[in-house]
Amino acid sequence: MTELAPSTRSRVLAALRDQRIETASWAFGNSGTRFKVFAQPGVPRDPYEKIADAATVHRFTGVAPTVALHIPWDKVDDYAALAAYAKEQGVALGAINANVFQDDDYKLGSVTNPDPAIRAKALAHLIECVDIMDATGSRDLKLWFSDGTNYPGQDSIRARQDRLASALSATYERLGDDQRMLLEYKLFEPAFYMTDVPDWGTSYAHCLQLGDKAQVVIDTGHHAPGTNIEFIVAFLLRAGKLGGFDFNSRFYADDDLMVGSADPFQLFRIMQEIVSADALNPAAGIAFMLDQCHNIEPKIQAVIRSVMNVQEATAKALLVDAPALAAAQENGDVLEANAALMDAYHTDVRPLLRELRADQGLDPDPIAAFKGSGYYETVQAARVGGEAAGWGA
Ligand code: PSV
Ligand code: MN
Ligand code: MN
């Protein structure tokens, strides 16, 4: 890497030191496609063991101090005790993800179901998730609805929007002053004709109507191929309606692969929008979460690698020469403006990140350190008996 000016170096290192990335409990459990789940030895058997794995990721990276839960996959009797355990392990519980997509009752939808009794059941679960947030101290309720229809005419699109708005509003009313609702959108799947929250515009419109505590969450795997995600980021940031990300990467649909693996340049462009809007610091309130499944690769290492990928994209975004970029843009100098971004993107930031970790008292190479730590061998030996947790349990 060419020598950085000392002021740039300290600005970039300080920003990277403050960065926070939230891991997902379900990334540590067995997962697969609808064709096959390949079980891995040593995977957690309960939410406590998932938290222990998430804490391990934090121990080696220093920037992943919270872990998101999914309810009921992470159902326990005492959520305050779970939060206390997380604290003992050196992490905190993050977003609570509601699950109204894995019950026979929800075949025709959850909060948009034509049957009022099923809608009431779904709403009760959303409210239960806010009760859980009270116990865990979580700030964010993350809502994703698999609701939609498979055939034209199957149900009224407008009536379903009304039902959705009513459930969101009842849940919103239940939020405490320091709690937020993050509404996730997804183009398709499992519904194949029409999804009730298919895009950022739908999520944005509902959040706008609800109020300040409702914001949009962008799952990077939930768009049509070729969608300009950084445009969505920029638009929502400007509107004060970007609540966070579910990071992952994809080649085709909702592949849930490691973030930054399929298209590191896209991740850089997203982080560049974040950095240029001064929205990286946790004080800006954007949640940078991972939503991934590690079907064939070792899970803890994959989560560590994902955290590192986000750090690398962020470091590159922080290296963009903002005054040079602004000047080129102002002068209409297309090539210089583009070069300002490309120069930063092509910088090898790995030495800088190694330096950051050394400064934080961490091993500069988190993957090698994890592999050498014996953690995986220990849990493999300890986690025998009982049932391994899977995506959905
Ligand atoms: C749906 O595809 C989704 O992205 C939602 O965030 C769910 O909560 C999550 O996946 C489950 O992995
Ligand atoms: Mn998601
Ligand atoms: Mn998804």
Automatic annotation (TrEMBL):
Listed GO MF terms: L-rhamnose isomerase activity; metal ion binding
Manganese is among the record's keywords: yes
Keyword Manganese attached: yes
Name this polypeptide is given: L-rhamnose isomerase/sugar isomerase
Domain of life: Bacteria
PANTHER family: L-RHAMNOSE ISOMERASE (PTHR30268:SF0)
Lineage, opening ranks: Bacteria, Bacillati, Actinomycetota, Actinomycetes, Micromonosporales
UniProt GO BP: L-lyxose metabolic process; rhamnose catabolic process
Keyword tags: Isomerase, Manganese, Metal-binding
NCBIfam families, A to Z: RhaI_grampos
Family annotation (InterPro entries): L-rhamnose_isomerase (IPR050337), Rhamnose_iso-rel (IPR013457), Xyl_isomerase-like_sf (IPR036237)
